[in-house]
Amino acid sequence: MNEHTPFTEDAQSALYNTGNNLAPFDGELYLFKKFYCAQKSDQLFAAFETGLAWQEEDIFIFGHWHKVPRLMCWYGDPDAYYHYSGVDHQPRPWTPELQLVRAEVEKQCRCAFNSVLANLYRDGRDSMGCHADDEKELGLNPVIASLSLGDERLFKLRHKKRKETLDIILDHGDLLVMAGALQRHWLHSVPKTRNFKKPRINLTFRKILERY
Predict the structure, then answer these.
(1) Phi first, then psi: what are they for 47, rounded to 5°?
(2) DSSP characters for 89-151?
(3) How many whole angstroms from its chain centre is CA 17?
(4) What's the chain's average pLDDT?
(5) pTM over 0.85
(6) Per mean pLDDT, which range of 23-32, 85-94, 123-132 is the poorest?
(7) Cα–Cα–Cα angle for 206, 208, 211, nearest 5°?
């Protein structure tokens, strides 16, 4: 299959036959624990914490601008522009470390990614609100691979209609893959916590479609 051809939902199902689908219905969700060992995860965390261009962003939600409660940055191929919550993101060039991780994640997922959204959660007060990655730039059934580095955090999913929920603890070096119709039917978030938390970095690899 050409790497620029969007995967169909059936094709995605065949990609992850090494793991169990954690989504009970309406999508695909695969967790690869310790995708990177502790030593490699430590090295990557240190490289990304100091080597990426972290910035505080404002997003437009419900008619108002709000500060994003975490630091963010966007990297990718030159044409991988991304627009969400009223903000246009022009990709920064890939760093060598991001290129290395992208290649290894692509090998696991058996599909190509041309961009990555990086999030830095500085402590338990930093969070990500409930949402779906369903922007038109990502296509109908996007494959999104999410690598966690640093302190563990709770990742919550909630079905849009049935209100069923899933709670997943993402730890240092874990890889979570969302695919199929998951973004059409489920919302996800990283909620705030009063528990003491050290910094966490999350890299979400995506494919921005060329027609957008």
Answers:
(1) -65, -40
(2) EPPBPPPHHHHHHHHHHHHHHTS---EEEEEEE-STT--EEEE----GGG-SS--EEEEEEES
(3) 21
(4) 88
(5) yes
(6) 85-94
(7) 160
145-170: pLDDT as tens digits: 999 999 999 999 999 999 899 999 99
Secondary structure (3-state) at 36: coil
Task: Name the DSSP class of 41.
Answer: H
CA 158 distance to own-chain centroid: 16
Q: What's the average model confidence in pLDDT over 26-31? A: 97
Is residue 3 pLDDT above 80, yes or no?
no
Q: CATH says 9-206 is which class? A: mainly beta
Mapped onto helix, strand or coil, the DSSP state of residue 11 is helix
What CA–CA distances, in Å, run from 51 to 8, 57, 94, 136, 175?
Answer: 35, 18, 11, 30, 21
**How do the domains of the chain map onto residue ranges?**
9-206
Structure tokens at 148: 């966690």
- Helices 96-109, 38-51: axis angle to 10 degrees equals 130
Please, are residues 110 and 181 in contact by the beta-carbon 8 Å criterion?
A: no
